[in-house]
Amino acid sequence: MKHFLLFISFTFYIASAYTQPQWQQKVNTIIGVTLDDKSNFLYGYEEFTYTNSSPDTLRYIFIHLWANGYLNDHTPFAKQKDAFGDTKFYYSKTSDRGYIDSLQFVVDGKNADYNSSANTPDIARLDLPYPLLPGKEIKISTPFRVKIPIVFSRLGHSGQAYFISQWFPKPAVYDTKGWHLLPYLDYGEFFSEYGSYDVTITLPKNYIVMATGNCTNKEENEWLDSLAATPLPSDTLYSRSYPASSNTMKSLHFHEDRVHDFAWFADKRWIVRKDTVTSPGNQQLVTAYAAFLPAHQEKWLKATNYLKTTVAHYGKWVGPYEYKTIKAVEGDMLAGGGMEYPTVTIIDRSALSMLQTTVVHEAGHNWFYGMLGTNERDHAWMDEGINTFYEQKTDQAIKKDSIPSFQKKATDLNDLLYYEAVAIHNDQAIDQTAINFTKLNYGADVYYKTALMLRWLESYMGEKAFEDGMHEYYATWRYHHPYPEDLQAILQKHTNKNIDWFFSGALHTDKKVDFKVTDVHTHGQQVDISVKNNSGIVAPVKLEIHGKDKTTYCWVPPFNGRAEMDSVGVDDTWSSVKIADEIPDAKTDNNVYRRNALFHTFKLALRPIFGSNRINADKLFYSPAFGYNHYDGFMVGILLHDLTIPENRFRFAIAPMYGTGSNSFAFAGSVGYFWYPGNLFKEILLQIDAKSFKYAQADLNLNKPIYAGYTKVAPFLEFTFNEHNLLSPVRRTLTLKTYNITEDVFAYSSDSIPSLHQQQKSYGLVRYKHDNTRAYNPFDYSIETQMGEDFAKINAEANIRIDYFKKDKALYARFYAGKFIAINNDPAIVQRYYLNSTFIAANDYLYDGTYYGRTQTSGVDAQQISMQEGGLKIPTQNNIGRSDNYMLALNLKSDLPINLPIRLFVDVCNYADPSSPNGNSKILYDGGIEFHLSKDALLVTIPLIMSDNFINYLDNTFGASNAFGRSITFSMKLSSNWLRFTEEVLKDAEK
Ligand SMILES: [Zn+2]
Fold it and tell me: Would you tell me how many other CB atoms lie within 10 Å of the CB of residue 129?
């Protein structure tokens, strides 16, 4: 095989990379701590020896006081919770929060001052009484007290179950890059110095304790052995009640060397199981413990097996497990399934359904975090991403062992989230500090995209070379702080292929990886293949040439744009050329070149309902479609669409239907194309909406009713502005839309027989909307102009939710101002477009809403209103509350301090009344009770007070006995744009 390529040459230059660790600080820590399980306090005393191995003289040391992350609403932790819309901490009682205090630092016998800033109470600077010279060590001690919060994040308690992590004063890392100050975060992990830990924990005797390192109390270990040998309880009901704490206390001593953290977990209810495994590579006998609640014993019984599997596989692929114990415990800690600490990991209940994967992942962190102590905050992919890669490898190895014909499926669900983010240009580069990521991307990019990219790198280097490289990385950097360039330098030693495309390209791009085979020619034994790389980064691609009897593989070395490849020795019977599955290609429909097809790279796949986009074809989904309105009656038809995940840029959804009431065809559909220019505009959408339904019926003097219909075709452009970053809660859009509407209208002959004739209407609309979905007091405002040949209109609207200091309780305020300008002076024509205090179906001349009875004046279908224009709630069928000039409105509603879906509302509207001679200003009001269902998708309002005009109208029109019933209305909130269906479902899922 030979290669003719658009050759791009690289200079092999790797800045500040060492294949050997340089100096690093050492911290040996001794802690004595007592748990007060009545008041949830820890009382501790800590003494650590800090060895300055750096060439620098240190005058101060930064100390992390991470328990102070739970101190108040201003900590970086609290702000991240707010930014991610998690309101539990914000609305929590002070007594449920946590902190660390009672500190009194003594350095080598001298008192030392420390200070921290108000906004980062979790980072303190300890001023040393005298400089710490290179090569010297000092002893620093302090008492401390920790108020244990309820579970908001990692450190916490759930009743009398204790999750004690990130709890004691701990020096920040000082290395060749300086000090690493890491405020405590939920999304964003840690970085700490290596050393030994000696921790003595005192607590009531009947607690089971699982902690970092080895318990040195013989009696305790014998008790654990006896628990592990106890048969499982038959009563497995999970109970919130805890056994009473024993009056006798015990003190347990734990020791571990060469670790960078210490955590412990205590519970009185756990079942304990124990097993042993020999670590490959060093033949170390490792004891595996699992501790779990009786209610989940069935799933958890296998946990020790999962720990053993991890030791075996990671031991083989990366390097031997060096500690004597490995433990997994069950708890309520909220850390996305589980959280890793040296030799002990905690798994929360949310991970029960995927316990194997979670235990393997968390235990696997003993390598990528524990023994290879990377900077998790700034290069989170180096622990989470690499660990996910090995977790998936382990998972596949287990499946391969148990299912002989196992084949990895094309795309995992988690990978879909990454591919979806790329598709809608919400992806972020892997190698950046944790605080930059959106909540979704912290998972999709740091974990799953990294794992996908590593699979690509492994395949490019070859499994053997990659494994050799990882072995050397482990052996060289074990118990040290490697950076990305250190990993690159070592892996590069194991291949003569340049892997800079991975470290400088793949890790730093938010672009879509997309390769395409554009052309293939055959001359005898030689096949010429043209490949295109649309990724925007230089990268290699693997091709599979499928022949009748064999599949040939070849790599196109890193390139961008186009490349030509001559493959010799390919079976002349080849039928297709394919981008190999281990390439994380985000656009799979163009990945196969088919030799004998009319369109070589196009293939249509018909699929029912909805599905993944990750197959090598263009998808067309079909499903039954149903609808209803008063005139067409129940409608049945077929829905054809290409909405999928990850999403296409060209999207359509069309539903031709048949109305069983009107006995005629109805139709709704949208077709759109999405651009992502990425400058001023994040996205530009060109879309055409079309629909055709019946909207009125006439049966006067007829044997059977005739129906008037409308057909609307509305093309629009929607520009979404770019915000300064993806974390911004702001979305600003500019919409330009035109409407072409054909309406049937009834004409009545002299003997009052109705017939239909058609009229054509065109309108234009320009709207700017600013929407801020921040967690507290979110607001939006918009300004819109509408124009038709007979009128012009300006609508300005603002909404704000003013949160009370309680979850889901708020005051909702809406302001509206409208101005109407008549172009045609004939009121009979122009009144259709007037401003409305209560917006009903008949006012929707743009046919933008979904209404069940557009021209109904009786029955439930006539009681549908919309929160548009004046926003009042009393539907009227005449000109009450309509204006040909201006309208102002204020709509207020408030949640109540009860747990029922009820609010109180009041609306007031001021407008110029066209029926009064001088266009006098008039005021209308109403107020009452609103019922809200399924996140405000359906609102039902019952007015209790209203203006006299409304009372008189209702009494005169429907009679006093019916008036109340006619004042009850409902409104519905439907999806804003069905071409954004996937996006909206995922956005809701994220919350
Ligand atoms: Zn992890």
Answer: 15
- From the number of C-beta atoms within 10 Å of its C-beta (0-12, 13-18, 19+), residue 157 rates as buried
What is the number of H-type helices and E-type strands within the chain?
16, 52
Tokens read off for 680: 């001023």
Instruction: Judge contact between 796 and 835, C-beta under 8 A.
Output: no
Report the separation in Å between the CA atom of 908 and the middle of ligand 1, taken as the mean of its atom positions.
Answer: 54
pTM equals 0.94
If you measure from the C-alpha of residue 122 to the centroid of ligand 1, how many angstroms do you get, rounded to a whole number? 23
Distance 990 CA to ligand 1 centre (A): 19
Query: What are the angstrom distances between the C-alpha of 701 and each of 135, 632, 698, 749?
Result: 106, 20, 9, 11
Q: What is the pLDDT of residues 489-510, one digit of tens each?
A: 999 999 999 999 999 999 999 9
The CA-atom distances, in angstroms, between 927 and each of 804, 817, 967 are 21, 20, 11
Residue pair 943/959 in contact (Cβ under 8 Å)? The answer is: no
**Cβ–Cβ < 8 Å for 157, 36:** no
Two tokens at 23?
Answer: 């100096």
- Contact between 614 and 626 under an 8 Å Cβ cutoff? The reply is no
935 Rama sector, left if φ>0, alpha if ψ -120 to 50, beta otherwise: left
What would the 3-class secondary structure string for 351-417 be? HHHHHHHHHHHHHHCHHHHHHECCCCCCCHHHCHHHHHHHHHHHHHHHHHHHCCCCCCCCCCHHHHH
Q: Which of 395, 265, 396, 386 is nearest to 335 (CA)?
A: 265
Q: Do the Cβ atoms of 221 and 215 come closer than 8 Å?
A: yes
Nearest to 575 by CA among 600, 594, 590: 594
pLDDT digits (tens, 9 = 90+) for 393-446: 999 998 887 776 656 555 688 899 999 999 999 999 999 999 999 999 999 999
Q: How far apart are CA 392 and CA 372, in angstroms?
A: 19
Report pLDDT for 17.
Answer: 58
- 684: CA distance to ligand 1 center in Å? 36
Sequence-distant contacts of 5-12: CB under 8 A, at least 24 apart: 5/556, 5/557, 5/559, 5/563, 5/564, 5/565, 6/559, 6/561, 6/562, 6/563, 6/564, 7/559, 8/538, 8/558, 8/559, 8/560, 10/498, 10/500, 12/492, 12/498, 12/500
Q: 422 alpha carbon to ligand 1 midpoint, in Å?
A: 22
Q: What is the whole-number distance in angstroms between the Cα of residue 384 and the centre of ligand 1?
A: 5
Q: In terms of Cα–Cα distance, which of 706, 705, 701 is closest to 749?
A: 701
Q: Report CA(383)–ligand 1 centroid distance (Å).
A: 7
Q: How far is the CA of 584 from the centre of ligand 1 (A)?
A: 21
Q: Output the CA 792–ligand 1 centroid distance in Å.
A: 58
Classify 422 as helix, strand or coil: helix
Select the more confidently predicted residue: 928 or 755. Answer: 928
DSSP structure class, residue 593: E
| Locus of tokens 């902690």 | 211
Q: For residue 361, report the distance from its CA to the centre of ligand 1, in Å.
A: 6
Residue 448 CA to ligand 1 center (angstroms) comes to 11
Q: How many residues belong to the chain?
A: 991
